[in-house]
Each structure stands twice: as structure tokens, then as C-alpha cells.
Amino acid sequence: MVTDVITIDFGTEKSFVAGPENRAVACALDDFCEQWELASPLVLYGPPLAGKSLLARGASARRQIAYPDDKVLTMTGSDYAREFAQACKAQTVEMFSQRVRTCDLLIVDGLDEAATKAPALEHFCRTLDMLNRQCAACVVTMRGLPAKRREFSPALVSRLTQGLALEVALPALGTRRSIVADAARRRGLSLSDENCLRLARQIEGDVLTVDNAVAQLAAQDGNDLQNTGNGKSELPLRQITSAVSKIC
């Protein structure tokens, strides 16, 4: 069983499991949460289901625990673009700007969702400038590096690269196997290492995705699973396939 796996606890119900592929992310996130302003904006980029949103919201939770009086605002990239457009239409841009630029920590999850909304991105660029002047922090998640988004202006790319950019990778096979084993233990399922590995091979995704797959197995015939885990029989491939198909 893989031992080089750590769990990042955010003080919430959800945690991030980091194997060797995300160890640098885990260490850097700890540094960011201790010195918010120095590494802002923090850009978390990587493929879907890698756990970027979980890490961003985890950083938010840590901020609120450490500084309960601070104002933390979390929104998606599409939310930012839509609310800015609505504010322009209603002539309330100043009110919208006040909301996003007076927080101590602004989190924009999926900034690339607003990639085709040039006016909103220009406003966000100025928001980053304002937050920087106020020593406030910002966390952004994206699917790729800012410089690879042709829709982003040079000014926005410059602002986003002034802080810390971390690539979040999908959990590797060994990490997923560790996640499966932990999820099975929490549900009272005694799965062998071989069966944990078999399930881990079938799933690519974050902790929640893998955990959901184990939950699907737990929802099936418990006696059969217990017998399988005790070594009386192999976990049928059809059960794994069924579980994976329900969450993928």
C-alpha cells in the first residue's frame, strides 16, 4: 500500500489527498495560507476533476478559520462575467466593483469560463490591481496556464503571473488506490489490496470521484463485498464497472 500520501485538512468535511504528484502543491498551499499577500494571486491550474476547486475552497476555509472577521468572497468565472454584465445594464458597476474589490480574499473558480467576456476580464484585471494595492489576496482556478489563453489580454496575463501558479495533477494510480482503501475502511468494507488496485485502475478523478465509486460499491450487496474483501472470491469486474458507470 502506498504510504507517500498526505491528507490536507481544511477544517471542513472535505479534504485533499496529495500523493507524490501533488506534494509540491500541498507544500506551496501551506506557504500561501501563511503569507497570503506575498504569493497573490494564486493560480491553480490543471485538468477537470483534479481538485482545483476543492483546494481553492479549502484555502477559503483556512482564511475564515484564521481570520474570522475577514471578508471572503467566492464566485465562479461565469458568475463574475454575468454579474458584471448585469451591473453594466443596470448602471450599478460601482456597486459591483465595491463588492469584489473590498474583500480580504477573492476566489474566482474557473476564470476561463469568462474567457470570451472581454469587458468582464478587463474589469477583473483592474480588480487584481486594487486587491494588490490593499494587500488583499486572490485565488484563481483554471484549466491551463494564463499565458496559454489567447483570449486573455497581455495585461491580465501579467497580473495573473505576478503571484504563484501551481499545477494540480489528477491523482496517480498509487494515490487513487490509497483513497479507495481509506474510503472502504470508512464504510466498513474489507477490500484486499488487489481489489483496491483494480478499482483504482478504473477511475480517474479527484478524491470525491473515487470516494463516490466506493460508495456505489457499498450500496450494492454488502455480504458479497465483505466476502470478496475477506479473500473468499475476487470482486467481480461487473460490480466495478457498474459502480464506475454511475459516477462517470
Walkthrough of the structure:
There is one protein chain. With 248 residues, the protein is of the alpha/beta class. Helix content is 51%, strand content 13%. It has eleven helices and seven strands. It has a five-stranded parallel beta sheet with strand order 4-5-6-3-7, with helices on both faces. A two-stranded antiparallel ribbon has the order 1-2. β1 and β2 form a beta hairpin. The chain is elongated, with a radius of gyration of 21 Å. The two termini are 25 Å apart. About 6% of the residues have low confidence.
User: What is the alpha-carbon Rg in Å?
Assistant: 21 Å
Structural class: alpha/beta
What is the general shape?
elongated
Q: Extract low-pLDDT stretches.
A: 221-234
Average pLDDT for all residues: 84
Which percent range describes the beta-strand content? 5-15%
Could you spell the SSE succession in H and E letters? Answer: EEHEHEHHEHEHEHHHHH
Q: End-to-end span in angstroms?
A: 25 Å
Helix content: 40-55%
User: How many extended strands?
Assistant: 7
Counted by DSSP, the helix tally is 11
Largest pleated sheet: 5 strands, parallel
Biggest sheet strand line-up:
4-5-6-3-7
